[in-house]
Write a structure and sequence with these properties.
CATH architecture: 3-Layer(bab) Sandwich
Distance between the termini: 67 Å
Strand content: 15-25%
Helix content: 25-40%
Order of helices and strands: HHEEEEEEEE
CATH superfamily: minor pseudopilin epsh domain
Oligomer: single chain
Shape: extended
Length: 169
C-alpha cells in the first residue's frame, strides 16, 4: 500500500487548538516576576510610548506632549488648526492610570537629580503638556523613577537628556 503523506485538516486543527490553549493560559497567568515585574512593565510601557511619540512627531511633523495626572499620564498633540494642545484619545495614546501599587516620581531633567521631586505634575485643569516631543526628535529632558507604593526596593528609572533615546540607566 501507498504511504500517506502530510497531515489531515483535522490533525492540523487539533495542533492549532492546543497551541491556542497554551498561549491563552500563558497570557492569563500573572507574571512570575513578582512585585518588581509590575514596576518594570509600567516603565517599559511608558518608554515604548515615548519612543512612539518621538517617531510620530517626526513622521507627522507635529509636536506631541505628555503630562502627568498624579496617578497616571495623558498624551497631547499640537493642533495647528486650533493653535492649541488637544488631548489624544487613541488606542495607544489615551489617558492611562497606573496600577494602585505603582508610584511615578518626577525628578526633573536628567542632569538635576535631587531628593525633593520637582513638581512638574499637571493638574487635570491644565490645558497643556509638561514634556514636549518636537518634530526634530528632541524631547523635554526628564528623569522618572517608578517604584512600588510601600516597597522602594524595586525601582526603574527612565530618563532622557532631550536628544538621546529614552533609556534606563
Amino acid at each position: 500500500m501507498g504511504c500517506q503523506q502530510g497531515f489531515t485538516l483535522l490533525e492540523l486543527l487539533v495542533v492549532l487548538l492546543i497551541i491556542g490553549i497554551v498561549v491563552g493560559v500563558a497570557m492569563i497567568v500573572p507574571s512570575a516576576g513578582g512585585p518588581g515585574q509590575t514596576v518594570k512593565d509600567e516603565a517599559l510601557r511608558l518608554q515604548t510610548l515615548m519612543e512612539q511619540a518621538r517617531d510620530r512627531a517626526l513622521l507627522e511633523n507635529t509636536e506631541m506632549g505628555l503630562s502627568m495626572t498624579g496617578n497616571g499620564y495623558r498624551w497631547w498633540i499640537w493642533s495647528r488648526d486650533e493653535d492649541k494642545w488637544r488631548l489624544l484619545n487613541e488606542q495607544s495614546f489615551r489617558e492611562y492610570r497606573f496600577p494602585d501599587n505603582v508610584v511615578l516620581t518626577n525628578y526633573g531633567d536628567s542632569s538635576a537629580v535631587t531628593d525633593a521631586p520637582e513638581q512638574k505634575w499637571q493638574d487635570l485643569d491644565n490645558e497643556k503638556p509638561a514634556w514636549i516631543f518636537s518634530t526634530d526628535t528632541q524631547v523635554t529632558p526628564f528623569r522618572f523613577e517608578f517604584t512600588l507604593r510601600d516597597d522602594h526596593r524595586y525601582s526603574v528609572i527612565l530618563e532622557s537628556d532631550g536628544v538621546g533615546p529614552v533609556q534606563t540607566p
